[in-house]
Design goal:
heterodimer, A: alpha/beta, Four Helix Bundle (Hemerythrin (Met), subunit A), Rossmann fold, 434 Repressor (Amino-terminal Domain), eight-stranded mixed sheet, B: alpha/beta, elongated
Chain lengths: ~450, ~300
């Protein structure tokens, strides 16, 4: 996400860096590039104009022009203004004492409301809450059924009285069930609608009236264009919006239009959806995204993901094993599984600072299939072989290759790499992954990010 | 109102900020005494912003601006110059759709949430009304309740549907559908595929596999690959079109949800940059709300003169 914007901005900054001194002319040239980059990222043209004007005003100030590192200063100004654009509020849900808390999802057709409902329920359940889902979409064929299936996958209760086809009554019923049975959050999925559809907007207002939601989340597709402001504005005017959920950020859309929504409607982005799995929803952190846009990576999200995927006890055991040089193929396989739990490899790499500008990475993406093959090879070994890889002789290698559908060469390569890795781990000693010092690593990363700015 | 005029109607259903702004911009420039002069800088700039705000994109906007900028006019209106240039962009990519020997195989592809399933339902309905005997193939075996949704559309359209066995490979369903179409004399086969982001290599490869299976069963299949784009999409629509064309051989665009305030300006960008024609336009939620694209009507609707 935002990759192309970040590449483009990095080029701009690189050219600024080449200049010993900034002049009004080269600032103007840089601003032109930034303008084009933002327009191509679908940022609303009015927002772009205001943004460029603010950056220009601040960059032309004498102390910036005469400072020792003018380009750094400009980067800083761009960063500050961008944060202002995103809204500086933190993602997630604000605190409320209301029980049950009602979250109403609204937005255009196809933005991803139903999927978001499931993801949000899963996220809340993980936070120790007890969500109840209800669909009020009686319009789109099979929409209710879709939510039922999503709820089943998320292992969350869904309120679906057979034959009840009145949206308002469905929402009301869910609220009642939640109150009676002790669910503390009700997530109301609504029918997708065009903001100019009077009938459905009235229906939405009626659902709002009976459920009194604390959160009205506007679900916006990251790929949306310049019209986004108009539709979000209209939802805000007719029903009210308290936050935005930005979906489909796992594509290469730059999400500029959704940003414009934040800046124009004046509500924060609460969550961002970044994949098709139910786990792929994260509270939105503006400063991290801005860091990524400016090519500073997103270490914090990476660490959070690692923390979520790694179980602490297991990590401690692993650390001990590495210390005493007992790291086996079995542990290796567990590690691979953990990494995979963090999400697609490509996504993870994108979070590492500077990786987006490494040349050739785009063509040589690490292959998920390759990992599957390694897992297959290890899976075809006996327990004893996994613990003592030195007993794997020629005939065992042949058997393993056959069993895993690979070749003896591949088995050889894996074993060789594993031995190298064992050596490396031995020399690393105590540094058993990031999990050992989760909090500490996080503080360090925070500090590091601050230092860069 | 009949089928003709539906595009224009849907484009002009709401208060047209674009149209109003366009009127504002061109009205001064088109005053009789100015029509023999070049268009002034302010007008050019305002026009540029307007085109960008319609999602027409930078390169198509540049082309349109270049066509009107610095040009000494001999009485032509700026309005017509702009409309002409956009028409030219569409006309240069418009070609007749070849009709192959039956069964024709049409794949419907696109990212998540653009309206593929709905489009398949509507398309089946239009084609059946035109006297063909379409068969729907439900190859979206991924999204929850996608097959059920399509089944409802198939019933509404009064056409048969071949559905996947639980957890089946999409290519296998396509194979079944083509075999069934051959046996029962159905034509065309409309294949609804799962929504996928163009950045997901594995999912994109699945489309390639579907193509290969179709080609093995019917010569030249898939004859038509329609990319469904949401009219609200921004510049990412270009990337989508490029990637889906590379992998799935897209040869036409369906523009959906044109009944909102979004004008689907990305269609102009795609025609200009990628030379892909627009084939169909979705103009509402009803089963009849899919019409053939007409560049003339679209451009008129986009910049309609107020009456």
């Amino acid at each position: 996400m935002f990759e192309s914007l970040s590449t483009r901005l990095q080029d701009v900054f690189k050219s600024l860096r080449g200049q010993g001194r900034l002049t009004p002319e080269n600032i103007e040239a840089a601003l032109r590039e930034i303008r084009l980059a933002l327009l191509e990222a679908d940022v609303n043209f009015k927002v772009v104009k205001a943004f460029i004007d603010r950056v220009r005003d601040r960059a032309m100030e004498q102390d910036v022009l005469q400072s020792l590192s003018p380009s750094q200063q400009v980067v800083r100004i761009v960063r500050d203004e961008m944060l202002a654009l995103f809204g500086d509020a933190q993602g997630g849900l604000a605190d409320t004492t209301k029980r049950p808390r009602v979250i109403l999802l609204l937005g255009l057709q196809g933005a991803g409301k139903t999927t978001t409902a499931g993801k949000l329920a899963k996220w809340l359940a993980k936070q120790g809450r007890h969500p109840l889902l209800v669909s009020t979409d009686v319009k789109r064929p099979a929409a209710i059924q879709q939510l039922n299936l999503v709820a089943e996958k998320a292992d969350v209760r869904v309120h679906d009285p057979a034959g009840q086809l009145d949206p308002v009554a469905r929402a009301k019923g869910a609220l009642l069930e939640a109150t009676n049975k002790g669910f503390d959050v009700v997530i109301v999925d609504s029918a997708g609608r065009l903001h100019i559809d009077d009938e459905l907007m009235t229906e939405l207002a009626a659902i709002k009236a009976v459920t009194d939601p604390s959160d009205l989340l506007y679900v916006a597709d990251a790929m949306t264009g310049q019209d986004a402001i108009k539709s979000a504005g209209e939802f805000n005017r007719r029903v009210g919006v308290t936050g935005v959920v930005l979906t489909k950020l796992d594509g290469d859309a730059r999400g500029g239009a959704a940003l414009s929504v934040v800046s124009v409607v004046g509500v924060p982005i609460a969550f961002a959806g970044s994949g098709e799995r139910l786990e792929d929803l994260e509270p939105f952190h503006p400063e991290r995204v801005v860091s990524r846009v400016l090519g500073m990576g997103d270490m914090l999200s990476l660490i959070e993901r690692a923390e979520a995927a790694i179980d602490q006890d297991g990590a401690a055991r692993l650390e001990e094993k590495i210390r005493s040089n007992e790291f086996t193929l079995e542990d290796f396989r567990d590690q691979l599984k953990t990494i995979r739990k963090m999400g697609p490899i490509e996504q993870i790499i994108g979070m590492i600072p500077g990786m987006s500008s490494v040349k050739g990475l785009a063509e040589n993406k690490p292959d998920e299939k390759q990992i599957s093959r390694v897992e297959a090879i290890i899976g075809s070994m006996t327990a004893e072989e996994r613990r003592k890889q030195h007993i794997i002789n020629g005939s065992r290698r042949k058997r393993i290759a056959k069993g895993s559908g690979t070749s003896v060469e591949e088995v050889n390569r894996l074993l060789k790499q594993f031995v190298q890795m064992q050596k490396m781990l031995k020399s690393l000693g105590g540094m058993a992954g990031m999990a050992g010092g989760g909090k500490k690593a996080r503080r360090q990363a925070m500090q590091m990010l601050r230092d860069r700015h | 109102m009949g089928v003709f005029g539906r595009i224009r109607e849907s484009l002009s259903r709401t208060k047209q900020q674009i149209v109003e702004r366009f009127d504002e911009i061109v009205s001064l420039a088109d005053e009789p005494e100015r029509r023999t002069r070049a268009v002034d800088v302010d007008t050019i700039e305002a026009l540029e912003e307007l085109l960008i705000s319609a999602d027409i994109g930078l390169s198509a906007t540049d082309r349109i601006i270049a066509a009107v900028k610095g040009r000494t006019r001999s009485g032509e209106s700026l309005r017509d110059l702009v409309k002409q240039e956009i028409r030219r962009i569409f006309d240069s990519v418009d070609g007749p759709v070849a009709v192959p020997a039956p069964p024709q195989v049409t794949l419907i592809v696109g990212v998540n949430g653009t309206g593929k399933t709905t489009t398949v339902g509507k398309l089946a309905n239009v084609l059946r009304a035109e006297g063909r005997r379409p068969l729907i193939c439900a190859a979206d075996t991924f999204r929850a309740a996608a097959v059920e949704q399509l089944e409802i559309w198939a019933t509404r359209a009064g056409v048969e549907m071949v559905r996947a066995r639980e957890g089946a490979d999409p290519a296998a369903v396509v194979f079944d559908a083509i075999s069934s179409a051959k046996a029962k004399g159905r034509d065309p086969v409309l294949v609804d595929t799962a929504g996928r982001l163009h950045t997901r290599v594995n999912l994109m490869n699945e489309l390639d596999k579907i193509r290969r299976v179709a080609a093995r069963e019917v010569a030249g299949a898939p004859h038509e690959v329609l990319l469904v784009l949401d009219a609200t999409v921004g510049q990412n629509g270009l990337t989508q079109a490029r990637e889906f064309t590379n992998v799935a051989g897209v040869n036409g665009i369906v523009l959906t949800k044109l009944d909102g305030t979004a004008k689907g300006g990305i269609a102009v960008a795609i025609a200009n940059d990628l030379k892909l024609p627009i084939r169909w336009v979705g103009v509402g939620e009803g089963i009849e709300d899919l019409v053939r694209f007409s560049a003339e009507e679209y451009v008129d609707g986009l910049f309609e003169e107020k009456w």
